[in-house]
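A reminder from the course coordinator: this example appears on the midterm review sheet, so study it carefully.

Given structure:
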Protein backbone atom coordinates (compact mmCIF):
# COMPACT_ATOMS: atom_id res chain seq x y z
CA UNK A 1 0.00 0.00 0.00
CA UNK A 2 2.78 2.41 0.88
CA UNK A 3 4.40 1.67 -2.48
CA UNK A 4 1.23 2.66 -4.41
CA UNK A 5 0.81 5.94 -2.46
CA UNK A 6 4.41 6.86 -3.18
CA UNK A 7 3.84 6.06 -6.86
CA UNK A 8 1.00 8.66 -7.17
CA UNK A 9 2.29 11.33 -4.79
CA UNK A 10 5.64 11.70 -6.52
CA UNK A 11 4.30 12.96 -9.92
CA UNK A 12 1.86 15.28 -8.16
CA UNK A 13 4.63 16.94 -6.19
CA UNK A 14 6.76 17.29 -9.35
CA UNK A 15 3.80 18.87 -11.23
CA UNK A 16 3.23 21.39 -8.46
CA UNK A 17 6.92 22.36 -8.44
CA UNK A 18 6.90 22.82 -12.24
CA UNK A 19 3.79 25.02 -12.04
CA UNK A 20 5.40 27.22 -9.38
CA UNK A 21 8.54 27.49 -11.51
CA UNK A 22 6.54 28.53 -14.60
CA UNK A 23 4.65 31.18 -12.62
CA UNK A 24 7.91 32.60 -11.33
CA UNK A 25 9.60 32.68 -14.76
CA UNK A 26 6.66 33.78 -16.97
CA UNK A 27 4.12 35.68 -14.83
CA UNK A 28 3.01 37.90 -17.75
CA UNK A 29 1.96 34.86 -19.81
CA UNK A 30 -0.54 33.73 -17.20
CA UNK A 31 -3.93 35.48 -17.63
CA UNK A 32 -5.28 37.10 -14.51
CA UNK A 33 -9.10 36.83 -14.45
CA UNK A 34 -9.29 39.35 -11.63
CA UNK A 35 -7.53 42.21 -13.47
CA UNK A 36 -9.93 45.10 -13.95
CA UNK A 37 -10.35 46.44 -17.47
CA UNK A 38 -9.38 50.04 -18.07
CA UNK A 39 -12.28 52.42 -18.38
CA UNK A 40 -12.24 55.99 -19.52
CA UNK A 41 -14.77 58.68 -18.85
CA UNK A 42 -15.12 61.88 -20.79
CA UNK A 43 -15.70 65.07 -18.88
CA UNK A 44 -16.55 68.26 -20.71
CA UNK A 45 -13.97 71.04 -20.45
CA UNK A 46 -14.61 73.29 -17.43
CA UNK A 47 -15.99 76.75 -17.97
CA UNK A 48 -14.40 78.19 -14.84
CA UNK A 49 -10.99 79.01 -16.33
CA UNK A 50 -9.56 82.46 -15.89
CA UNK A 51 -11.45 84.87 -18.12
CA UNK A 52 -11.07 88.45 -19.21
CA UNK A 53 -14.46 90.07 -18.83
CA UNK A 54 -15.87 91.94 -21.79
CA UNK A 55 -18.84 93.33 -19.86
CA UNK A 56 -18.94 97.13 -19.80
CA UNK A 57 -16.12 97.54 -22.30
CA UNK A 58 -16.28 97.56 -26.07
CA UNK A 59 -13.30 96.50 -28.12
CA UNK A 60 -12.58 98.94 -30.92
CA UNK A 61 -12.63 96.81 -34.06
CA UNK A 62 -12.31 98.44 -37.48
CA UNK A 63 -15.48 98.08 -39.53
CA UNK A 64 -14.78 95.51 -42.22
CA UNK A 65 -17.14 93.94 -44.75
CA UNK A 66 -17.66 90.18 -44.77
CA UNK A 67 -14.84 88.38 -46.58
CA UNK A 68 -15.65 87.49 -50.15
CA UNK A 69 -15.39 83.71 -50.47
CA UNK A 70 -16.18 81.40 -53.37
CA UNK A 71 -18.50 78.44 -52.91
CA UNK A 72 -17.70 75.18 -54.71
CA UNK A 73 -20.08 73.01 -56.70
CA UNK A 74 -21.43 69.89 -54.92
CA UNK A 75 -19.19 66.85 -55.19
CA UNK A 76 -20.28 64.23 -57.71
CA UNK A 77 -19.90 60.64 -56.46
CA UNK A 78 -20.93 58.87 -59.68
CA UNK A 79 -17.42 57.93 -60.76
CA UNK A 80 -13.93 58.52 -59.46
CA UNK A 81 -11.14 60.19 -61.44
CA UNK A 82 -8.02 58.34 -62.50
CA UNK A 83 -5.87 61.23 -61.32
CA UNK A 84 -6.28 64.05 -58.80
CA UNK A 85 -3.81 66.34 -60.53
CA UNK A 86 -6.58 68.77 -61.52
CA UNK A 87 -7.79 69.04 -57.90
CA UNK A 88 -4.25 69.67 -56.66
CA UNK A 89 -3.46 72.24 -59.34
CA UNK A 90 -6.71 74.04 -58.44
CA UNK A 91 -6.23 74.15 -54.66
CA UNK A 92 -2.46 74.01 -54.05
CA UNK A 93 -1.63 77.60 -55.12
CA UNK A 94 -3.94 78.87 -52.33
CA UNK A 95 -2.14 76.82 -49.63
CA UNK A 96 0.70 78.83 -48.06
CA UNK A 97 3.60 78.17 -45.73
CA UNK A 98 3.54 80.11 -42.46
CA UNK A 99 6.72 80.88 -40.53
CA UNK A 100 6.17 82.38 -37.08
CA UNK A 101 8.86 83.47 -34.66
CA UNK A 102 9.09 84.94 -31.19
CA UNK A 103 11.87 85.92 -28.83
CA UNK A 104 12.20 83.98 -25.57
CA UNK A 105 14.66 84.13 -22.69
CA UNK A 106 16.88 81.23 -21.80
CA UNK A 107 19.57 80.71 -19.18
CA UNK A 108 23.03 80.37 -20.62
CA UNK A 109 24.63 78.81 -17.52
CA UNK A 110 24.40 74.99 -17.61
CA UNK A 111 24.22 74.68 -13.79
CA UNK A 112 21.31 77.10 -13.43
CA UNK A 113 18.78 74.44 -14.37
CA UNK A 114 19.94 72.21 -11.50
CA UNK A 115 17.80 72.75 -8.37
CA UNK A 116 20.84 72.40 -6.05
CA UNK A 117 23.12 74.89 -7.84
CA UNK A 118 20.29 77.35 -8.59
CA UNK A 119 20.43 78.61 -4.98
CA UNK A 120 23.94 79.96 -5.58
CA UNK A 121 22.82 82.26 -8.39
CA UNK A 122 21.55 85.72 -7.61
CA UNK A 123 18.17 86.31 -9.20
CA UNK A 124 19.38 89.66 -10.52
CA UNK A 125 22.41 88.19 -12.28
CA UNK A 126 22.31 88.77 -16.01
CA UNK A 127 22.90 85.10 -16.84
CA UNK A 128 20.15 84.79 -19.41
CA UNK A 129 20.11 85.60 -23.06
CA UNK A 130 17.45 85.83 -25.71
CA UNK A 131 16.93 83.36 -28.49
CA UNK A 132 14.56 83.15 -31.42
CA UNK A 133 11.97 80.36 -31.28
CA UNK A 134 10.52 79.53 -34.68
CA UNK A 135 7.60 77.34 -35.64
CA UNK A 136 6.25 76.12 -38.92
CA UNK A 137 2.72 75.70 -40.19
CA UNK A 138 0.44 76.09 -43.17
CA UNK A 139 -2.51 78.27 -44.12
CA UNK A 140 -5.19 78.65 -46.77
CA UNK A 141 -6.06 81.81 -48.75
CA UNK A 142 -9.86 82.00 -48.71
CA UNK A 143 -10.53 85.50 -50.04
CA UNK A 144 -9.08 87.79 -52.72
CA UNK A 145 -8.90 90.42 -49.95
CA UNK A 146 -5.88 88.54 -48.60
CA UNK A 147 -7.52 86.69 -45.70
CA UNK A 148 -5.72 83.49 -44.69
CA UNK A 149 -7.18 80.80 -42.44
CA UNK A 150 -4.81 78.85 -40.22
CA UNK A 151 -4.64 77.38 -36.72
CA UNK A 152 -4.44 79.45 -33.56
CA UNK A 153 -1.60 77.30 -32.25
CA UNK A 154 0.45 78.09 -35.37
CA UNK A 155 0.43 81.84 -34.65
CA UNK A 156 -0.01 81.88 -30.87
CA UNK A 157 2.41 84.28 -29.19
CA UNK A 158 4.31 85.05 -32.40
CA UNK A 159 6.17 88.35 -32.69
CA UNK A 160 6.47 88.02 -36.45
CA UNK A 161 4.52 85.96 -38.98
CA UNK A 162 5.72 85.48 -42.53
CA UNK A 163 3.60 83.92 -45.27
CA UNK A 164 5.18 82.29 -48.33
CA UNK A 165 3.11 81.53 -51.42
CA UNK A 166 3.68 78.73 -53.86
CA UNK A 167 4.49 81.22 -56.62
CA UNK A 168 7.49 82.48 -54.63
CA UNK A 169 5.98 85.65 -53.19
CA UNK A 170 6.38 86.37 -49.47
CA UNK A 171 4.74 88.84 -47.11
CA UNK A 172 4.55 89.77 -43.45
CA UNK A 173 1.05 88.91 -42.20
CA UNK A 174 -1.27 90.90 -39.95
CA UNK A 175 -3.24 88.97 -37.33
CA UNK A 176 -6.90 89.91 -37.79
CA UNK A 177 -8.11 87.72 -34.93
CA UNK A 178 -7.76 84.36 -33.25
CA UNK A 179 -10.18 81.96 -31.58
CA UNK A 180 -8.33 79.61 -29.21
CA UNK A 181 -11.47 77.61 -28.42
CA UNK A 182 -11.85 76.44 -32.01
CA UNK A 183 -8.08 76.67 -32.69
CA UNK A 184 -8.56 78.98 -35.67
CA UNK A 185 -6.85 82.23 -36.64
CA UNK A 186 -7.30 84.71 -39.46
CA UNK A 187 -4.32 86.50 -41.02
CA UNK A 188 -4.20 89.08 -43.79
CA UNK A 189 -1.49 89.62 -46.38
CA UNK A 190 -1.25 92.82 -48.50
CA UNK A 191 -0.78 91.17 -51.90
CA UNK A 192 -2.72 91.39 -55.16
CA UNK A 193 -3.88 88.73 -57.61
CA UNK A 194 -4.03 86.06 -54.95
CA UNK A 195 -5.05 82.47 -55.69
CA UNK A 196 -8.19 81.64 -53.69
CA UNK A 197 -9.54 78.23 -52.71
CA UNK A 198 -13.23 77.39 -53.08
CA UNK A 199 -15.16 76.36 -49.97
CA UNK A 200 -17.30 73.22 -50.04
CA UNK A 201 -20.41 72.68 -47.95
CA UNK A 202 -18.84 70.42 -45.33
CA UNK A 203 -22.31 69.25 -44.24
CA UNK A 204 -22.33 67.15 -47.42
CA UNK A 205 -19.02 65.45 -46.60
CA UNK A 206 -19.57 61.69 -46.42
CA UNK A 207 -17.54 58.89 -44.88
CA UNK A 208 -15.62 57.21 -47.67
CA UNK A 209 -15.09 60.35 -49.78
CA UNK A 210 -11.57 60.77 -51.11
CA UNK A 211 -9.63 63.49 -49.27
CA UNK A 212 -6.32 65.16 -50.08
CA UNK A 213 -4.21 66.93 -47.44
CA UNK A 214 -1.96 69.78 -48.60
CA UNK A 215 0.66 71.39 -46.39
CA UNK A 216 4.33 71.76 -45.60
CA UNK A 217 5.23 68.76 -43.41
CA UNK A 218 8.57 69.01 -41.60
CA UNK A 219 9.41 72.03 -43.76
CA UNK A 220 10.30 69.87 -46.78
CA UNK A 221 8.03 71.92 -49.06
CA UNK A 222 4.44 71.72 -50.20
CA UNK A 223 3.28 68.11 -50.13
CA UNK A 224 0.05 66.33 -51.04
CA UNK A 225 -1.15 63.14 -49.36
CA UNK A 226 -4.29 61.13 -50.06
CA UNK A 227 -6.80 59.21 -47.97
CA UNK A 228 -10.50 59.10 -47.29
CA UNK A 229 -12.92 60.68 -44.86
CA UNK A 230 -12.81 58.22 -41.96
CA UNK A 231 -15.46 59.84 -39.76
CA UNK A 232 -17.39 63.07 -39.28
CA UNK A 233 -18.60 64.87 -36.17
CA UNK A 234 -15.71 63.67 -34.01
CA UNK A 235 -15.79 65.17 -30.50
CA UNK A 236 -14.79 64.28 -26.91
CA UNK A 237 -11.13 64.32 -27.97
CA UNK A 238 -9.96 66.99 -25.52
CA UNK A 239 -8.26 69.00 -28.28
CA UNK A 240 -10.48 72.09 -28.32
CA UNK A 241 -13.29 73.44 -26.17
CA UNK A 242 -15.68 73.09 -29.11
CA UNK A 243 -15.11 70.08 -31.33
CA UNK A 244 -16.77 68.85 -34.51
CA UNK A 245 -13.86 67.33 -36.38
CA UNK A 246 -13.61 65.56 -39.70
CA UNK A 247 -11.36 62.52 -39.33
CA UNK A 248 -9.15 61.38 -42.19
CA UNK A 249 -6.39 58.86 -42.80
CA UNK A 250 -4.61 61.16 -45.26
CA UNK A 251 -1.12 61.60 -43.81
CA UNK A 252 -0.87 64.75 -41.68
CA UNK A 253 2.51 65.50 -40.13
CA UNK A 254 4.18 68.35 -38.20
CA UNK A 255 3.99 71.43 -40.42
CA UNK A 256 0.59 70.49 -41.88
CA UNK A 257 -1.35 72.42 -39.23
CA UNK A 258 -3.54 75.06 -40.84
CA UNK A 259 -3.26 73.43 -44.26
CA UNK A 260 -6.09 72.36 -46.53
CA UNK A 261 -8.08 69.15 -46.61
CA UNK A 262 -9.73 69.12 -50.04
CA UNK A 263 -12.11 66.93 -52.02
CA UNK A 264 -11.49 65.52 -55.55
CA UNK A 265 -12.82 68.77 -57.03
CA UNK A 266 -10.14 70.81 -55.24
CA UNK A 267 -12.63 72.47 -52.85
CA UNK A 268 -11.83 73.03 -49.18
CA UNK A 269 -13.38 70.45 -46.88
CA UNK A 270 -11.56 71.39 -43.68
CA UNK A 271 -8.52 72.97 -42.00
CA UNK A 272 -5.99 70.34 -40.87
CA UNK A 273 -5.51 70.74 -37.13
CA UNK A 274 -4.25 67.75 -35.18
CA UNK A 275 -3.22 64.12 -35.29
CA UNK A 276 -3.45 61.18 -32.93
CA UNK A 277 0.04 59.78 -32.71
CA UNK A 278 2.31 57.92 -30.33
CA UNK A 279 5.39 58.61 -32.46
CA UNK A 280 4.93 62.27 -33.40
CA UNK A 281 4.27 61.39 -37.04
CA UNK A 282 1.19 60.33 -38.96
CA UNK A 283 -0.47 57.10 -37.91
CA UNK A 284 -3.53 57.43 -40.09
CA UNK A 285 -5.69 59.38 -37.63
CA UNK A 286 -5.87 63.08 -38.46
CA UNK A 287 -8.47 65.73 -37.65
CA UNK A 288 -9.65 68.76 -39.59
CA UNK A 289 -12.01 71.62 -38.68
CA UNK A 290 -14.99 71.55 -41.10
CA UNK A 291 -15.07 74.27 -43.76
CA UNK A 292 -18.49 75.52 -42.61
CA UNK A 293 -17.26 76.12 -39.06
CA UNK A 294 -14.07 77.75 -40.36
CA UNK A 295 -16.13 80.06 -42.58
CA UNK A 296 -18.33 81.08 -39.64
CA UNK A 297 -15.31 81.87 -37.46
CA UNK A 298 -13.70 83.75 -40.37
CA UNK A 299 -16.73 86.04 -40.72
CA UNK A 300 -16.91 86.82 -37.01
CA UNK A 301 -13.21 87.47 -36.58
CA UNK A 302 -13.10 89.77 -39.60
CA UNK A 303 -16.25 91.77 -38.80
CA UNK A 304 -16.20 91.75 -34.97
CA UNK A 305 -12.68 90.86 -33.95
CA UNK A 306 -13.88 87.94 -31.82
CA UNK A 307 -16.24 84.99 -31.89
CA UNK A 308 -19.42 85.70 -29.90
CA UNK A 309 -20.74 82.67 -28.02
CA UNK A 310 -23.48 82.11 -25.48
CA UNK A 311 -22.43 81.39 -21.90
CA UNK A 312 -24.11 80.29 -18.69
CA UNK A 313 -21.05 80.29 -16.42
CA UNK A 314 -21.24 76.67 -15.35
CA UNK A 315 -18.83 73.79 -15.03
CA UNK A 316 -20.48 70.63 -16.30
CA UNK A 317 -19.78 67.02 -15.43
CA UNK A 318 -21.03 63.95 -17.25
CA UNK A 319 -23.72 62.03 -15.36
CA UNK A 320 -22.75 58.38 -15.01
CA UNK A 321 -25.13 55.59 -14.00
CA UNK A 322 -23.65 55.48 -10.52
CA UNK A 323 -24.08 59.24 -10.04
CA UNK A 324 -27.58 59.11 -11.49
CA UNK A 325 -28.54 56.46 -8.94
CA UNK A 326 -27.09 58.59 -6.12
CA UNK A 327 -29.32 61.48 -7.24
CA UNK A 328 -32.36 59.23 -7.33
CA UNK A 329 -32.60 59.22 -11.14
CA UNK A 330 -33.50 56.08 -13.05
CA UNK A 331 -31.58 56.98 -16.20
CA UNK A 332 -28.20 58.73 -16.62
CA UNK A 333 -29.83 61.53 -18.57
CA UNK A 334 -28.59 65.04 -17.86
CA UNK A 335 -25.39 66.61 -16.60
CA UNK A 336 -24.21 67.66 -13.17
CA UNK A 337 -23.56 71.32 -12.36
CA UNK A 338 -20.12 70.90 -10.78
CA UNK A 339 -19.68 74.65 -10.30
CA UNK A 340 -21.27 78.01 -11.06
CA UNK A 341 -19.07 81.05 -11.67
CA UNK A 342 -19.91 83.84 -9.25
CA UNK A 343 -21.88 86.58 -10.95
CA UNK A 344 -22.52 84.48 -14.06
CA UNK A 345 -25.99 83.78 -15.49
CA UNK A 346 -26.31 80.42 -13.71
CA UNK A 347 -25.27 81.90 -10.36
CA UNK A 348 -27.70 84.81 -10.74
CA UNK A 349 -30.54 82.41 -11.60
CA UNK A 350 -29.91 80.35 -8.47
CA UNK A 351 -28.22 77.27 -9.94
CA UNK A 352 -26.04 75.51 -7.40
CA UNK A 353 -23.24 72.92 -7.52
CA UNK A 354 -24.85 69.51 -7.27
CA UNK A 355 -27.91 70.40 -9.34
CA UNK A 356 -28.62 68.07 -12.26
CA UNK A 357 -29.48 69.81 -15.52
CA UNK A 358 -32.10 67.68 -17.29
CA UNK A 359 -33.30 69.89 -20.14
CA UNK A 360 -32.33 73.11 -21.91
CA UNK A 361 -34.98 75.01 -23.85
CA UNK A 362 -37.22 71.97 -23.70
CA UNK A 363 -34.58 69.63 -25.18
CA UNK A 364 -33.33 66.77 -22.97
CA UNK A 365 -29.64 66.79 -22.08
CA UNK A 366 -28.25 63.60 -23.61
CA UNK A 367 -24.61 64.59 -23.93
CA UNK A 368 -22.90 67.18 -21.75
CA UNK A 369 -20.39 68.36 -24.34
CA UNK A 370 -23.01 68.63 -27.09
CA UNK A 371 -25.24 70.64 -24.75
CA UNK A 372 -22.43 73.08 -23.96
CA UNK A 373 -21.81 73.53 -27.71
CA UNK A 374 -25.52 74.17 -28.26
CA UNK A 375 -25.52 76.81 -25.51
CA UNK A 376 -22.51 78.48 -27.15
CA UNK A 377 -24.54 78.84 -30.36
CA UNK A 378 -27.32 80.78 -28.57
CA UNK A 379 -27.32 84.54 -29.00
CA UNK A 380 -26.37 86.44 -25.82
CA UNK A 381 -29.38 88.11 -24.21
CA UNK A 382 -31.71 85.19 -25.00
CA UNK A 383 -34.00 84.03 -22.18
CA UNK A 384 -33.32 80.32 -21.78
CA UNK A 385 -35.63 77.96 -19.82
CA UNK A 386 -33.95 75.02 -18.09
CA UNK A 387 -35.12 72.07 -16.00
CA UNK A 388 -33.07 70.85 -13.06
CA UNK A 389 -33.29 68.31 -10.25
CA UNK A 390 -32.34 69.47 -6.76
CA UNK A 391 -32.69 67.25 -3.71
CA UNK A 392 -34.85 64.88 -5.73
CA UNK A 393 -37.30 67.57 -6.86
CA UNK A 394 -37.70 68.99 -10.37
CA UNK A 395 -37.54 72.74 -10.81
CA UNK A 396 -37.96 75.02 -13.83
CA UNK A 397 -35.75 78.09 -14.04
CA UNK A 398 -35.07 80.76 -16.66
CA UNK A 399 -31.60 82.15 -17.34
CA UNK A 400 -30.45 85.02 -19.48
CA UNK A 401 -27.62 83.88 -21.72
CA UNK A 402 -24.52 86.09 -21.50
CA UNK A 403 -21.60 86.48 -23.89
CA UNK A 404 -18.83 84.05 -23.15
CA UNK A 405 -15.83 86.01 -21.82
CA UNK A 406 -12.50 85.77 -23.57
CA UNK A 407 -10.33 83.06 -21.95
CA UNK A 408 -7.22 84.52 -20.37
CA UNK A 409 -4.77 81.82 -21.38
CA UNK A 410 -1.05 82.45 -20.94
CA UNK A 411 1.18 81.88 -23.92
CA UNK A 412 2.56 78.38 -23.54
CA UNK A 413 6.02 77.30 -24.48
CA UNK A 414 5.56 74.68 -27.18
CA UNK A 415 8.07 72.18 -28.36
CA UNK A 416 8.65 72.19 -32.08
CA UNK A 417 6.81 68.89 -32.34
CA UNK A 418 3.68 70.14 -30.59
CA UNK A 419 3.68 73.49 -32.35
CA UNK A 420 3.99 71.87 -35.74
CA UNK A 421 1.18 69.36 -35.46
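Designed residues:
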Amino acid sequence: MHRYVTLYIGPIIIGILLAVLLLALFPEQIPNPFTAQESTTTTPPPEDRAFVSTVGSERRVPKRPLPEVTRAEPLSREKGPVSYAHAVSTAAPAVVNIYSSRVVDRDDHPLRSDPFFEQFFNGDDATSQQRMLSSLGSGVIVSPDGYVLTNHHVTNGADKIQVALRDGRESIAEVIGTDPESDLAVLRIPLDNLPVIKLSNSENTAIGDVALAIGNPFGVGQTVTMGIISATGRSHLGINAYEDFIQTDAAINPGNSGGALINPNGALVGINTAIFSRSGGSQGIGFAIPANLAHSVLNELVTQGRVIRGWLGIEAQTLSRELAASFGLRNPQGMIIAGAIKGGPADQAGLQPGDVLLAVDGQPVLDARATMSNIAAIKPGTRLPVTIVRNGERQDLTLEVAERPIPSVPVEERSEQNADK
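The two ends are 78 Å apart (CA to CA). The chain has nine helices and 25 strands.
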